[in-house]
């Protein structure tokens, strides 16, 4: 695990919150940090240069999407994803598990988090001990993704932080299935570790990837005894980092409870990632459980719908609302992003009215800057041990 | 005409080509120059910051689109279009005439240039001495645009260079109609000049616009005697600049002939703009007739279709072609744009395959840089009086 390091800098006295630094060969990540989604090797609608100017520390890309298009070998030929997409700072890839199962069960992330299954568009064909058989959403071809194959693909892609292959259990299954699935995920995790430790067997064609660090994933759904069992499994395996995966329940309170319970059982040896959470209110709450990194598509997805992140409990405004037609003020007062420095709500409202793609860019810049500013505010508050005050100020600012 | 100046720097001995400088309150334009279209107050898919980094000197926006959405008063409230869209260099607006008539006759620019009329989607309702009555493409409401109204709107918008209101005659009409239309356009031009000279009557609500300079438009279609008459009218009226408008015929040779004939009758007192031409081969040919500025939507429109401008007679490549799937080379060798510096054809091919908007941006950056590099190469060639050699080198580069 050369080139990688995790250290805690400061800890809150009242909460489990902490600041820290994850060191990677492509630079360090100050935690708590937000990881922005470049699902298919691109941040939706904005350039990596813009993301960099917004103080972005780390992005993630999805093994599932990249293995299907353009294929991991093409990324390896570029010398890895940092070169491919021109992002020279840390990158994380997931294992492909989340998408196979979330798309596979007929819906997307919401389904994993709390919604019931629908039967349409199921692309997951079969789960066997060997791995998961699914149908490509691009051309209908069948693919078997195994732990070994996931690690090999992630090696080709060449992100800094990579994840073990797991089944992401949805909410609608019962405890029995959650347990069976968790135990299979542990076996898959073990096979992922073995592949990772012998990854020299899988050297990419053009020797792309530098060193990588592996995250384990804690399963167990909403069942505390299963979460215990999965924490025990993961702690035994000396992962560089740990991610809390699987369903987190059907309500925000249940999510807080599952995350709090799980993270309370973790030690300080690893950074902890929470998959798929990006609501600022959730982040204020969950950093208090000791979560170090979050990822979510929300900042850029919201932007494409005209939703602007703001410092209120409501959390956003809709720029398409006609009240902004001649509002000359910036998206947010006291925001220092380049969009707020240079453009009015009226102008961006106009861009959305006439379908100019620049509108997506300008709000994406604001939303990304907003999330990075949120995380920086949180880090300062932890360092000063005044989280409660800082959170109150955030909303009254 | 304070704050505006036109001077010729160097002239080709063999051709009518010249380099010059147009000075405006928002900076100078080295000519020959290309003007990029920000039709609705935004460069399609890229930010003005990117356009600036690509050495862009001047952009244009369309009165017709802006008067309908967001309306010129909202732009005036921002202190004019430079503030509205955050472009602090020169801007030109057309008078609205071109769009009313090109959209009005049931098609767009191609129709004006060479194609026959189709009857569908006609939005032009009536041309009367007072002005042109048309139906909004946004909400179906009726609008009467007159010369006075066009100048008032352009005053509110506040571009540096503005145009008289004219009827843009299509190709399919006969000589008689072209003559009637031209003479009406001259009367409209005269009314535009009167409005422009008394524009203090039309002070925008928040006093947005600084000084502006007015361009006349030379009509006459493909008929040399009519072009003569229109040149005479325009030269008598002391416009700051002159634009060659109306139909330019049904073939490239006819276009060269019309432009050459018309520009040969012009003196050196004004910069000459050619409306709607953006093909590099046409530009190499037409600067030799003394054209100083060109505008066209092509660089960004082509980009959105995956077409990359390159230095060949063919002029472009299609990045969506599967031969680029694993082509690690940049869009163009020896190109110094940020796209070519940082990304491979393979990556941009991938972006188009998976519908990532970033693909539009990256090719737009290249195409805009390419056009600015073309114009800069042409200016150097005129200064060195070696146009023929420079053009041959351009294609063999």
Highlighted features:
homodimer, 397 residues, alpha/beta, TIM Barrel, 2 domains, eight-stranded parallel β-barrel, three-stranded antiparallel sheet, 16 helices
Task: Give a verbal description of the structure.
Two copies of one chain form a homodimer. Chain A contains 16 helices and 16 strands. Chain A has helices at residues 48-53, 63-68, 72-77, 81-85, 97-104, 109-113, 147-157, 175-197, 224-236, 252-264, 280-286, 298-304, 338-342, 345-353, 358-383, 387-396, and strands at 5-11, 18-24, 27-31, 33-37, 58-61, 91-93, 124-127, 132-135, 142-145, 161-163, 213-218, 241-244, 272-274, 293-296, 307-309, 316-318. An eight-stranded parallel beta barrel of chain A has the order 4-5-6-10-11-12-13-14, surrounded by six helices. Chain A has a three-stranded antiparallel beta sheet with strand order 1-2-3. By secondary structure, chain A is an alpha/beta fold. Chain A has two domains: 5-31 and 62-296, Queuine tRNA-ribosyltransferase-like (TIM Barrel), CATH 3.20.20.105; 307-365, no CATH class. Residues 107-120 of chain A have low confidence and may be disordered. Chain A is 40% helix and 17% strand. In chain A, helix 12 (298-304) runs antiparallel to helix 15 (358-383). The longest helix of chain A has 26 residues, at 358-383. The interface between A and B is large, with 38 and 38 residues.
